[in-house]
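Thread: quick sanity check before group meeting

JM: Hey all, I'm pulling together slides for Thursday and realized we never actually wrote out the predicted structure for the chain we discussed last week. Dropping the sequence here so it's in one place. If anyone has concerns about the input, flag it before I start.
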Amino acid sequence: MNRSISLHTTHGLLHGQLELPDHPRGLVLLARSQHTPLDILITDNLTGRGYGVLSMQLLSAQEAHFADATQNVPRLTQRLLDILELIRNDGDMQDLPLAIFASGDTTPAAIRAAARRDTQVKLLACYGGIVDRAGLEALKLLEAPLLMLFDTADTIGRTAFQRAATHLAGLYETHVLDAEEDPMLRVAGWLSIHLDRAA
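JM (edit): ok, ran it. Output follows.
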């Protein structure tokens, strides 16, 4: 199944794409501030492993013109919460165990949203990002197992995670990727362990 998804906001439409294989093992919300060509590769990788993917932008075309829009954690968090509500009420998605895959500037918002929807979001996988920008409350409340991936050169992100990790009460794992390492292998392994168990 392939469906286009739209979400109305006061600042314009958010666009997304839902890809569901036959008999999906679960659903991965691919959270991006804006769509990128990489989204297609990630979606193909995950659907090839039997997971449904909702690839959803968190900023409207109007908002994307502002350089600091991706730094607005409260707004990105609210967008994620709106998308989670959409998933909860959609007949094609509502019964599938749910994971969030975020990266970069969307990582803190994904942690906040998962902390507030702990019965809905079964796991998180994040690639980079300044984790402690999620805030102390969200870090302490997060129950979903968290996988954090970092590039070798991402010293800022790794240092931020070291600060944040002391406040994480739930299960987490970190991994620094080798230069040629495919991050999707780690993400797929995390899904296989934690999302399949939630099905």
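AS: nice. Strands lie at 2-9, 12-19, 27-32, 52-57, 98-103, 121-127, 146-151, 172-177. Residues 107 and 129 are 5 Å apart (CA to CA).
JM: adding both to the slides.
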